[in-house]
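Hello forum,

I keep getting stuck at the same step: I have a sequence, I want structure tokens, and every attempt I make locally crashes halfway through. Rather than fight my setup again tonight, could one of you with a working pipeline run this one for me? It's a single chain of 219 residues.
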Amino acid sequence: TGSTDNTVHLAKSYGFKTYIAQRSFMETLSTKSIKMLKKLHIEEDENERANTLFKDDHTYFNFGMARNELHKYVTNEIVIQIDGSDTVPVFDFEYINEQIKSGVRRFEYTQIYGPVELTISRFYEKNVDVWEGRTHEILTHKSKKEITFLPKDKLTVVHNYQPKKRTYLSGLFADILEKPNHTRTLYYLGRELMFSGLFKSSIKYYLSLKIGNSIYYYL
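Reply #2:
Ran it on my machine without issues. Output:
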């Protein structure tokens, strides 16, 4: 979907079926929209700092659209999404396949982010569930089926955090334009303001959403 490193070569060298999408997932947010959204979400004395976070063309990669695109190539009904920076020390394929054959369609499993360990659900039915959002993409489960938890000895995923230049604000602003009251997107925007050093804007923003306790985790 537009990888600029060695991903395609590595995938082929390991014998994976590899497909290259014949479309672009780059989008552009207008300067007019950026100015309007900055006025709503950025504190005035942090505007100069905010200006350095946006390129002139305000382009971003639409991850949600790219993930939905892969359904053209996947033949299985059940899909698991794993980031390129994830490692999977435990994955009991036989056990999970047996669960799927018995009718299970939704799973949760353990994902580790440094010192933080949580349960997460990125298994989904490709013809039922969809990805929403551009940069902090969200898996929307249309199915209301019961979730089955996979023990650690069946599946564990470790996210290996890698410092990188953050370019998420344009995509999040585009999501806010489309869904101005989407709670999770609003939360991600507040988090990105914090990560980008716009602390006054982020704190005011989180407090206005009445989820101020989230601030302490990032501070």
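Confidence is low (pLDDT under 50) at residues 214-219. If your local run keeps crashing, start a new thread with the error log.
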